[in-house]
Design a protein that fits this description.
The complex is a heterodimer of chains A (276) and B (656).
Chain A (H helix, E strand, L loop, with lengths): L1 H15 L5 E7 L6 E6 L2 H4 L28 E5 L1 H12 L8 E7 L6 E2 L9 H9 L8 H8 L2 H12 L7 H5 L24 H14 L9 H5 L6 H16 L27
Parallel strand pairs in A: 1-3, 3-4
Antiparallel strand pairs in A: 1-2, 4-5
Chain B lengths: L3 E6 L11 H9 L4 E7 L5 H14 L3 E6 L2 H14 L7 E5 L11 H20 L7 E4 L3 E5 L3 H12 L3 E5 L14 E2 L4 E2 H14 L3 E4 L2 E9 L2 E8 L14 H5 L5 E2 L8 E2 L2 E2 L11 E2 L5 H5 L4 H5 L12 E7 L1 E4 L3 E3 L16 E3 H8 L20 E8 L15 H15 L4 E6 L9 H10 L4 E4 L2 E7 L2 E8 L4 E7 L1 E6 L1 E3 L3 H8 L11 E3 L3 E5 L4 E3 L9 H19 L3 E4 L4 E3 L9 H5 L5 E7 L5 E8 L9 H5 L5 E3 L4 H9 L2
Parallel strand pairs in B: 1-2, 1-3, 3-4, 6-7, 6-18, 7-10, 18-31, 20-27, 21-22, 21-27, 22-23
Antiparallel strand pairs in B: 5-32, 8-9, 11-12, 12-17, 13-14, 15-16, 19-28, 24-25, 25-26, 29-30, 33-36, 34-35
Classes of the chains: A alpha/beta (276), B alpha/beta (656).
C-alpha cells in the first residue's frame, strides 16, 4: 500500500510537470484478484492506479504500440524485474529508446510489494545481474519437474497432447512483448510455412517456431501462459529455451540494452557440440 | 504455363548402374509442366550440351532441370549452355542424382524412386525461378601479401614486376622469415642469406611494393576484388623515416643479455635491436618488455646516443586502412616445441638442440660465426647424433604428418658438419629417407657416400648424460640390435607446425584450416593455391610443410592467380543476393549483426512530408555474398534470397 501511494504521487508529479505524456500501470480488474492495464493521462486516472501482488502481467508490450513513442515524448510504465529485462531487449532490438521510458519498478516476490530503486532501464543492471547469478530452482514447479524427468518420447507425447487443444487464436503472440513484428511469419502465406489449421502438425509448427523465435529473448513473464484460453503451459517451452541458451552461451535475456541477440552473434568460446 | 525440360544423365555407369534412367525419364515425363524428359549417356559432353540447347530452342522451354552430378561439378557448364540457347542461365537447375543418390545406394528400385523425388523437387523449384542478371563489381587492383618470408617476398615481387601494386606486411621488424635463419640450403649448398638478401632488398626498394614491417593485420572485411583491411603498425619507438640504421643505439644499450629469437636462443641481443645484421629495413625496434625505460622510466641511453633524434618513446601503435582486391596469405610455420619429448632431454641438456638451432650454429652470421660449437662448454663436438622425425609422423605427440624437409636438412647438417669438423663422426637415426625432388636423392647419397654420414634405421628411445657425454640409446632395425652411441651433441629434426595463432588468424581473414591449423586449399589437387574464400590465396608453409623451392613455386602460382584477377576492371558476380521487404521489416537489426559480410545497412523511410516513418534493413547487393544467414535469422521472413526464394525452397520441399 505504501508503494502504491508513493507511485501514485510520483505519477501525478510527472504528469503535472509534463515529464511524461502517459503512464502505463494497473487498475482493478473484473474480479477481486484480477488487474487490468491502465493508461494514465490525468490525475483522476492516476487515482485508479493499483499496485499489489496481483499485478503480474508484463506491460512492456504496450510500449511498442505503433505510433506511441514516435513523438519522442516520455512514457512511464510499471514493471517487475522481468518487465525491465523486456525493455532492455526491446531497446537492443531498436524497438524503443530507453531514455523515453520512465520505469516504476516493483517486486512482488515478498509478502509486501516493494519499490525498486531507479527510473531508467540502466539503473537496474545490478539487480538484473544478481538475477542472472541465481536462476530460479528447477524443482520449484511440480509440472516443470515432471517434464524434466521425462525422456524424449514421453516429452513429445506430453506436448503433442497439450498442443492438441491449441485453437490457433494467437493470444500468446498478442500478449507477448517480444512479438512486435508488423507481419508475423504465421500470417505470411506466400509460401505458407506454418500450417494454419489446428491439427497436430500445424499446432506443433506454430508453437515450436514461436519458441525458437523467443530463444534468448523470453524473460519468463508468463503473459503467453496466462493469455492461453486452453491452458497450454507455454511458459515451460520458453523456459526450456532460456535454459538452453543460458547453459550453452551464458546468455541471460535482457541484461542490457546493448546485448546482442544470441542467435545472431557468436564468440570464440561458444561450445560447438553440434559440430561433429 | 511452364514448359520444363528434364535431362537425365547416365554419367556413364555412375548413375545408370543404380538408377533406372529409362524408368525415371518416363515417370518424370508424366509430371505436370514437363515438356521434355530425355536420357543420355553424358549430357556434359559436347553432343549432350548441344541436345540440351536444341531442346530449349525447339520447345521454347521456360526452364530446365539437369538430373546428373552435383551442381558443384557442372552447374556452370549447363547454365552457359542455357545462355547460348537464349534461356536465362538462372532458369537452369541441377538435380543431384549422383552424389546424393546413385553413389550412396545399392538397391536399384529404391534409388530410382529417390531419383524421381529429387528430380520432381527441382522441377517444382525451377517452375518458380526468376530470370536473374549478373552483378558487376569493380576490382581494386592492389594486393595484400601477409608474411615477409621467402614465399611472401616472391609473391610480392611477381605481382609488382607485373606492374600491380602490392602491400607487403611482415609481423617481425625485418623481412626474411625462416629462410634468413638458415645457413646453407639443400640440394646445392648455396648460402641462404646470400640468395635471400638480394630479394629482400629488391622487395623493399620496389616502387610498386609498399613494405610494412613490424605490422599485423587486425581486421579484414569485404570480398574478392574489394577487401577492406586494417593493419596495426606496432610502435617501433624508432622513426623509420629518420633513422639511418647506424647502430649506435644498439651498441650503447645497457640491456645486452636478452635471448636472441633469431638465433633460437643461442645468442644474445640488446633491448633496442634489429633481428640480424642484414635486416630489411635496417631500422631497429625497442623491445618494450626488456627496455629499462619502459620498466622503471629511467635510462633513454639509446635516445641520447642517437645523433639524429630518431628515437621517440611516446610512439603509439597506428592503424592503416587499406582497400585491396586480393590477399595472399604467406604466414609460414614454427618449429614444434620439443619440450614434449622428455626422453630426448631437450631443455635439460644444453647440447641437445633443434635443427633450426644447428642452422644458426652453422651460419656464418650466427652466434658462433659458423663454427659448430657446444653451448655447454664451447668445444667442438666430435660425434654428433641426428634424430629424424623428432615430432613428425608421431601420432602420440599430435603430429601425424611428415614435415617433408627434415630428411633433406639432416643430410645437409651432416655434410656441413663434416666439412667444418674434419674427422668428426655423424650418426643419423631415421625412419625412412624421403628425398623426392630434383637432385634430392643424389644429395642424401652424397652425404652417405662422400661425407661419411652413418645412417641407422631406427628410433631413439632415450638420451641421457654420462661422464660428460650424451648417451643415445636407439635401435638399428636393419641389424635387429639395440645400439648406444656416445655423442657430444644431439640434433633433433623437429616437426614443422603451424604458427601458434594460425587458427585465430584464419578467422580474421575468413579462411578454413585443418585439424593442425594449416590453411586449407580450395581443392587439394586442382585448386591448391586458392583458399576456400574467393580472392584469398595461399603461399608457403602456412598451408603445409614445404621446402624453399615448393614455397617459391606456390608463391608464384598465387601471384599469377592474383594477376589473372587484376586483368579485368570488373568482376561479374552471381546475382544470388538477398533483398529485404521494407513493408514487413520490423527493424530489429538481427540481420545486420548476423551478416558476415557487413552487407546490410539501416535505411530510413520518410513519408511525403519528410517525417521519419521507420527504419528498415536494406541489403547492399555489391557486398552480399548470398549466404542466406540473414534469411534464416529474420523472424518475420522479411528477407528473401534471389535464386533461393522462400517460394522456391518451399516448392522444392513440397515437391519431395
Amino acid at each position: 500500500m505504501i508503494t502504491q501511494e508513493k507511485y501514485r504521487t510520483r505519477v501525478k508529479e510527472l504528469l503535472a510537470n509534463n515529464s511524461v505524456k502517459m503512464v502505463i500501470g494497473y487498475k482493478q480488474g473484473s474480479t477481486a484478484d484480477r488487474r487490468r492495464p491502465l493508461f494514465v493521462r490525468s490525475f483522476e486516472e492516476a487515482d485508479e492506479l493499483v499496485l499489489d501482488s496481483n499485478c503480474i502481467g508484463n506491460l512492456a508490450g504496450y510500449l511498442v504500440t505503433e505510433g506511441l513513442l514516435s513523438d519522442e515524448k516520455r512514457v512511464g510504465i510499471f514493471l517487475r524485474p522481468e518487465g525491465i529485462r523486456s525493455i532492455n531487449i526491446l531497446a537492443a532490438e531498436s524497438q524503443l529508446n530507453t531514455e523515453q521510458i520512465i520505469i516504476f519498478g516493483f517486486d512482488t516476490s515478498g509478502r509486501e510489494v516493494k519499490a525498486l530503486q531507479g527510473e531508467q532501464a540502466g539503473d537496474f543492471s545490478g539487480l538484473i545481474d544478481s538475477l542472472k547469478e541465481k536462476p530460479p530452482e528447477k524443482s520449484s514447479d511440480a509440472l516443470l519437474y515432471r517434464i524434466d524427468q521425462m525422456n524424449t518420447e514421453e516429452r513429445f507425447a506430453f506436448w503433442k497432447d497439450e498442443f492438441s487443444r491449441c485453437i490457433k487464436c494467437y493470444a500468446c503472440r498478442q500478449a507477448c512483448p517480444m512479438c512486435y513484428c508488423r507481419r508475423c511469419i504465421v500470417d505470411s502465406n506466400q509460401p505458407q510455412w506454418i500450417n494454419t489449421s489446428s491439427h497436430t502438425l500445424g499446432n506443433f509448427e506454430w508453437n515450436i517456431v514461436r519458441a525458437f523465435h523467443l530463444a534468448g529473448r523470453c524473460v519468463g513473464c508468463g503473459n503467453c501462459d496466462r493469455a492461453c484460453p486452453v491452458n497450454i503451459p507455454l511458459r515451460f517451452i520458453n523456459a526450456r529455451m532460456a535454459q538452453e541458451v543460458f547453459e550453452s552461451f551464458d546468455h541471460y535475456a535482457g541484461t542490457s540494452q546493448t546485448q546482442e541477440p544470441v542467435l545472431a552473434s557468436f564468440n570464440k568460446d561458444d561450445s560447438e557440440t553440434f559440430i561433429l | 504455363m511452364a514448359k520444363i525440360g528434364v535431362f537425365i544423365c547416365h554419367c556413364g555407369e555412375n548413375i545408370a548402374s543404380k538408377v533406372d534412367c529409362t524408368k525415371l525419364a518416363a515417370a518424370i515425363g508424366e509430371h505436370p509442366g514437363v515438356e521434355v524428359s530425355v536420357e543420355y549417356k553424358y549430357f556434359c559432353s559436347d553432343p549432350g550440351q548441344e541436345s540440351v540447347k536444341k531442346a530449349i530452342r525447339d520447345n521454347n522451354l521456360t526452364g530446365i532441370v539437369i538430373a546428373a552430378c552435383s551442381p558443384r561439378m557442372h552447374e556452370a557448364t549447363f547454365r552457359k549452355a542455357c545462355a547460348e540457347a537464349g534461356l536465362n542461365p538462372y532458369l537452369c537447375e541441377i538435380a543431384n542424382i549422383r552424389e546424393q543418390c546413385s553413389w550412396v545406394h545399392t538397391d536399384k528400385d529404391m534409388a530410382t524412386e529417390k531419383a524421381m523425388d529429387i528430380t520432381r523437387s527441382m522441377i517444382e523449384k525451377v517452375k518458380r525461378n526468376n530470370k536473374l542478371q549478373p552483378i558487376e563489381v569493380p576490382v581494386t587492383r592492389r594486393a595484400l601479401v601477409i608474411g615477409g618470408g621467402i614465399a611472401g617476398i616472391q609473391a610480392a615481387l611477381d605481382i609488382a614486376n607485373a606492374g600491380q601494386e602490392v602491400v607487403l606486411v611482415e609481423r617481425e621488424p625485418s623481412l626474411g622469415g625462416h629462410m634468413a635463419q638458415l645457413s646453407e640450403t639443400f640440394p646445392t649448398l648455396d648460402c641462404s642469406q646470400c640468395i635471400m638478401t638480394p630479394r629482400m632488398v629488391e622487395a623493399a626498394q620496389h616502387p610498386k611494393i609498399r613494405l610494412l614491417t613490424y605490422a599485423e593485420v587486425e581486421h579484414v572485411d569485404g570480398y574478392i576484388g574489394n577487401f577492406k583491411v586494417r593493419i596495426r603498425m606496432k610502435s617501433r619507438y624508432v622513426d623509420i623515416d629518420t633513422c639511418t640504421g647506424c647502430g649506435d643505439c644498439m651498441t650503447k644499450c645497457p640491456v645486452k643479455k636478452i635471448s636472441n629469437e633469431f638465433d633460437c636462443g643461442l645468442g644474445k641481443r640488446t633491448a633496442i635491436y634489429t633481428p640480424f645484421a642484414q635486416s630489411v629495413p635496417n631500422i631497429p625496434v625497442i623491445d618494450k618488455t626488456s627496455c629499462i625505460y619502459f620498466k622503471n622510466g629511467k635510462c633513454k641511453t639509446c635516445m641520447k646516443s642517437c645523433q639524429i633524434n630518431a628515437i621517440n618513446f611516446d610512439m603509439k601503435d597506428e592503424f592503416i586502412d587499406l582497400d585491396v582486391g586480393a590477399i595472399i596469405v604467406a604466414t609460414g610455420f614454427q618449429v614444434q616445441n620439443t619440450a614434449g619429448y622428455g626422453e630426448y632431454g631437450y631443455g635439460k641438456y644444453p647440447d641437445v638442440i633443434t635443427g633450426l638451432q644447428f642452422e644458426r650454429l652453422a651460419s656464418a652470421s650466427g652466434p658462433t660465426a659458423g663454427k659448430i660449437l657446444r653451448s655447454s662448454d664451447g668445444k667442438v663436438p666430435e660425434t654428433v647424433v641426428f634424430i629424424q622425425c623428432a615430432g613428425s609422423r608421431d601420432p602420440s605427440k599430435g603430429v601425424r604428418y611428415c614435415s617433408k624437409i627434415c630428411c633433406m636438412y639432416t643430410a645437409k647438417h651432416a655434410m656441413l658438419y663434416s666439412h667444418k669438423v674434419h674427422g668428426g663422426k655423424t650418426h643419423i637415426f631415421y625412419m625412412d629417407i624421403r628425398a623426392a625432388g630434383k637432385g634430392y636423392d643424389e644429395f642424401t647419397r652424397r652425404a652417405i657416400e662422400e661425407d661419411d654420414a652413418s645412417y641407422l634405421r631406427g628410433r631413439v628411445s632415450k638420451v641421457w648424460e654420462e661422464n660428460g657425454k650424451l648417451m643415445v640409446r636407439g635401435v638399428d632395425t636393419l641389424l635387429g640390435k639395440p645400439v648406444v652411441i656416445e655423442a657430444d651433441m644431439v640434433v633433433l629434426a623437429t616437426a614443422m607446425v603451424p604458427q601458434p595463432n594460425a587458427k585465430e588468424f584464419a578467422k580474421i581473414i575468413g579462411i578454413a584450416y585443418d585439424e593442425y591449423g594449416y590453411y586449407n586449399e580450395a581443392h587439394l589437387k586442382l585448386r591448391p593455391v586458392e583458399s576456400s574464400t574467393a580472392g584469398v590465396f595461399l603461399a608457403g608453409a602456412c598451408q603445409s610443410p614445404k621446402d624453399i623451392p615448393d614455397s617459391v613455386a606456390q608463391a608464384s602460382a598465387s601471384a599469377s592467380k592474383v594477376l589473372a584477377l587484376f586483368s579485368k576492371e570488373k568482376l561479374e558476380r552471381e546475382p544470388v543476393v538477398a533483398a529485404t521487404n521494407e513493408i514487413t521489416c520490423a527493424g530489429c537489426w538481427g540481420c545486420v549483426l548476423a551478416c558476415p559480410y557487413n552487407a546490410i545497412e539501416k535505411k530510413d523511410i520518410f513519408d511525403r512530408s519528410g517525417r521519419l516513418v521507420k527504419r528498415v534493413a536494406s541489403v547492399n547487393p555489391g557486398l552480399c555474398q548470398g549466404c542466406g544467414t540473414c534469411v534464416t535469422f529474420c523472424r518475420s521472413n522479411s528477407i528473401d534470397l534471389a535464386g533461393f526464394t522462400e517460394k522456391q525452397i518451399f516448392a522444392e520441399v513440397m515437391g519431395l
